[in-house]
Amino acid sequence: MAYRMLVIDLDGTLLREDKTISDENAEAVRQAHARGVTIVLATGRATVGARYALERLAPAAGEYLVTFNGAMTTNLVTGQSLAVHELTRADYDAIAAFLAGHGLFTYAFSRTRSLAPSPHPIIEAEARFNTIQTSVIDFASLPPDTPLIKVMATGDPNQVEAVLRSIPPDWQNRYQAVRSAPFLLEFLHPLAGKGQAVRALCRQLAIPASDVIGIGDADNDTDLVRWAGLGIAMGNATESLLAVADHVTASNEDDGLAKAIRRFVLADPPCSGKLKPS
Predict the structure, then answer these.
(1) CATH label, 5-84+192-266, candidates 3.30.420.40, 3.90.950.20, 3.40.50.1000, 3.40.50.150
(2) Where are the alpha helices (DSSP H) in 68-172?
(3) Which of 175, 177, 191, 270 is the most buried (most CB within 10 A)?
(4) Looking at beta carbons, which pairs linking 199-202 to residues 24 or more positions away fall under 8 Å?
(5) Mind telling me the catalytic residues?
(6) Digit-coded pLDDT (tens) for 240-272
């Protein structure tokens, strides 16, 4: 079958460990785009953090962009936000209070800045990899209804795992908690998430799930890979993502994305995935 949309995670999928995009991956994405496939990048990064990938893949991936793990969807042609799901400073207070007893460092993102209560190496890393402005602030100085697009926590992977297991049951309808790296936990609006964002976009574009390929490597890609007509896990993916994927490709260091595109998009005829409900 001919797939109409290819949704690609960045870190650990499109990007190699040195945060660059190989010529093989870039060319495969461009060839898929030339065949009429809509290319959508879906990342936990801030919008500005996707700039390198968009420029590297041009003219592909120039229509829609999903950032902040599905909390924001942008029409790149018009510059308009198609969907934004935000938390508030009051949510930050509740989450930070909960995390304080678990030894994790808590910080947050607005649409344009990374915000932290004190200096921390993770903030330096966010500035470097996301190319986003960072600020150390007193969160209490912000009005309680100040929009924040996500609240982050970082620490030892075992501590992060312990927090995931101990999240209050009544928070399931208040927040969506996703693990974007072994040492990173993200709290999002309940309507956020890569899968939910892509599903909403596809409804606007009248593209059924069966016509979508979703590919990723981490736990925050789970809802996307599970929902897409063809869900692909990278060879370097987490065990939980491998468990829900329809297909496993090579790792991000071995151009697994390009291999998947050649098999399921560029082959003549292309291999097909399984049918899932929209």
Answers:
(1) 3.40.50.1000
(2) 89-100, 121-130, 157-166
(3) 175
(4) 199/227, 199/278, 200/73, 200/82, 200/83, 201/40, 201/64, 201/66, 201/73, 201/82, 201/83, 202/5, 202/278
(5) 9
(6) 999 999 999 999 999 999 999 999 999 976 666
